Amino acid sequence: MDGEHAASVAGCASxxxxxxxxxxxxxxxxxxxxxxxxxxxRSDPGWPCCAGCDDCxxxxxxxxxxxxxxxxxxxxxxxxxxxxxxxxxxxGVAALRESRRGEAGPRTCPLLDGDAGLCRVYAARPxxxxxxxxxxxxxxxxxxxxxxxxxxxxxxxxxxxxxxVNHQAVEAQVEASEEVRDLLAWWAELPAPAAG
Length: 196
Ligand code: SF4
Ligand code: SF4
Hints:
The chain has helices at about 5-10, 20-45, 55-60, 70-80, 85-100, 125-130, 145-155, 155-160, 165-175, 185, and strands spanning about 65, 110-115, 120, 135, 140, 165, 180. By secondary structure, it is mostly helical. The termini are far apart. It has one domain. Bound molecules: iron/sulfur cluster (2 copies).
């Protein structure tokens, strides 16, 4: 990882002597992740992550975790879904609750449109989803086998030149200022959709 760039991705959205709203922090983190993702894709047009590639959304090792600001944005997108989409999402949440009582993952995200292979709430997806496929933590890269194979094919020099989102630092910045819960824990705050 490029240390200087990782630091900039994790950089603080604070203002001297002032508090930063969760919304502003989220916008800054969104923009920084998008800049790194854009840079990776421009420098390597064959990068495997693309619309319709949904294996990662179908094989979650753990439920997406997010801060209160991320949840507020996501909740708005969920509440704006049409009735049929919301019904399918609720069915996915029920299945997820059931699986949680049983064995550990991998699990399918209930927000995935499995027919289209697309996220139903793409514009409001959590930070972890924005960076997955392009990120690293101290304990390892956050991507699937397809990306791993692609990076390996770049060889040692190509790998060293690769920029990545420092996801651990992003998480730490959110956790320092907001409550963080997993998707099902936040879901409990969502009123049931109107019947009909
Ligand atoms: S991380 Fe893997 S499965 Fe997810 S979009 Fe990228 S290539 Fe596809
Ligand atoms: S919120 Fe969207 S991008 Fe994130 S895991 Fe679920 S379907 Fe995939």
